[in-house]
Amino acid sequence: MTELEREIAASIIEALSLELPVDEFDPEAPLLQAIAQDPMLRELKLIAEPWDVGPGGYRLGAFPAEWGEWNDRYLDLVHARRWWQLAAVAELALVGLLGGGLVALSLQHKTVAYVVEVDALGAAVSLKPVEGAGRPTDERIVRYQLAAIVRGARTVMTDRAAMKRTLDQVYAYAPV
Fold first, then answer.
1. Distance from C-alpha of 133 to C-alpha of 112, rounded to nearest angstrom
2. Which of 29, 42, 87, 154 falls between 20 and 30 A from 138, CA-CA?
């Protein structure tokens, strides 16, 4: 047995021989003083668990200042970390759900195609939704119509009446 072990054992025996009441805790106990004065132990990080099985056993904050208390700070950090992790997972799930909803909305087609019958003067005679596929099968028709919309929207004229006719043709493609 080394000298340090003998001193610690003597301090423990001395601490046990003191007749303290059961629910009393002495932060100036000989064992704690011996540990604080020991040159080897003084340099170490000292951590205590501030509880005991006896009555009044939970002694949070009662140890000397140089002692760290495991349950006091570390447990609070662990609990806070768990709550932040749960909050981060919940936010990630919410973002995924909302992002999936936006993707699902973007995949839905909201365009309704109409067939318009016009007379010789260009006035609409009848109008009804297209039955069946509702999309032109020839890709050239689609490209031509899109080009006509873009060309009409970008056209700038000095004649107000011509400009109004061009914009009316562009807005004729817009759904109502």
1. 11
2. 154
What values do phi and psi take at 96, rounded to 5?
Answer: -65, -40
Per-residue pLDDT tens digits for 8-51: 777 766 666 665 555 566 777 777 788 888 888 777 777 776 66
Query: Distance between CA atoms of 174 and 168, rounded to whole angstroms?
Result: 10
Assessment of whether the complete model's pTM goes beyond 0.70:
no
Q: Is 35 exposed, middle or buried (0-12, 13-18, 19+ CB in 10 A)?
A: buried
Per-domain residue ranges of the chain: 3-74, 114-171
- What pLDDT, in 10s, does the model give residues 107-146? 887 777 777 888 888 788 888 877 765 566 778 887 888 8
